[in-house]
Amino acid sequence: MRYNIQRTTPLEQVVKVAAVSSTKQKVQIAPDLTIGAGEPVVLMAGPCSVESYEQTRAVAAAMAAHGLRVLRGGAFKPRTSPFSFQGLGLEGLRILRAVADEFGMFVVTEALGVEHVEAVAEYADIIQIGSRNMQHYPLLWAVGETDKPVLLKRGFMSTVKEWLLAAEHIARRGNRRIILCERGIRTFENATRNTLDTNAIALAKQESPWPVIGDPSHATGRADLVIPAARAIIAAGADGLLVEVHPQPSAALSDPEQQLPISQLPALVRQARLIAEAMGRGLV
Ligand code: PEP
Ligand code: MN
């Protein structure tokens, strides 16, 4: 690993970092699903929040028609406002698991705190660490002690180096099944919710051993920009996408502006697959 470690960093630390994770890793999600270099691009999709069984099932059914395998959905939600919908909690996890099992899919969902890790690890196939928690070290240590793949979102005010070192916090607890996710950073530009950092995708692919995916939904905050941003993410070399899709975005309990309606899923899949093929890869 070739971090641009500053000269102030003790050599001992550099050596230890390199010892934990020096070769490129693919992350096996299931016997027939692997994410990472050379494998097909994995298109993970689902609602921002799990709101009901029917809502989640409607998205999963549309995904299954395209052969998509990884269902996302928030049960424990990190909301900026405490007055906003906070998620269904354990009931949300149960809904995700039931729907995913019906369609032979896998679940990715967020553990918002250390106290959620056990339940999320029980119900989900991939544990998501949200952007706001990228430097919540006890949470990183806790997921580092599970045997589940971890999807580590980049903090929206974090540098690439801080992001990669956060991944090392997980790896050093023994869990090397890490997937990095670029989800946009806060910049001076306020026409979009965040700024998609495609540089970071290419850089993280080069400098870290972990697969890298991109989230065009939180990166843009606008449904009409999600498909173009998804194309850019794959073209930058990402191994996957994480996209919010809702049966009726305008009625969503969280992030209504950025969720794609189910009617746009075919266009997303078609365009993402075209770019993936141009990159010499398939798409699942
Ligand atoms: C999410 O993907 O559900 C989410 C809350 O995203 P982020 O942590 O990137 O804001
Ligand atoms: Mn969201």
Structure, explained:
It is a single chain. The strands form two sheets. Strands 3-4-5-6-7-8-9-10 form an eight-stranded parallel beta barrel, surrounded by eight helices. It has one domain: Alpha-Beta Barrel (TIM Barrel). 37% of the residues lie in helices and 16% in strands. The protein is built from ten helices and eleven strands. It has helices at residues 11-20, 53-65, 90-103, 117-123, 137-144, 160-171, 198-207, 216-220, 223-235, 265-278; strands spanning 27-30, 33-35, 42-46, 70-72, 106-110, 126-129, 150-153, 178-182, 212-214, 240-246, 260-261. The two termini are 29 Å apart. The model is unreliable at 4-12 (pLDDT under 50). The structure holds phosphoenolpyruvate (PEP) and manganese (II) ion (MN). Manganese (II) ion (MN) binds next to loops.
CA radius of gyration is 17 Å
This entry's quaternary arrangement is single chain
Mean pLDDT: 94
| CATH superfamily annotation | Aldolase class I
What are the segments in which pLDDT stays under 50 over at least 5 consecutive residues?
Answer: 4-12
What labels would you give this structure?
11 strands; globular; 284 residues; two-stranded antiparallel sheet; alpha/beta; binds phosphoenolpyruvate; eight-stranded parallel beta barrel; TIM Barrel; binds manganese (II) ion
In short:
By secondary structure, the protein is of the alpha/beta class. Helix content is 37%, strand content 16%. The chain has helices at 11-20, 53-65, 90-103, 117-123, 137-144, 160-171, 198-207, 216-220, 223-235, 265-278; strands spanning 27-30, 33-35, 42-46, 70-72, 106-110, 126-129, 150-153, 178-182, 212-214, 240-246, 260-261.
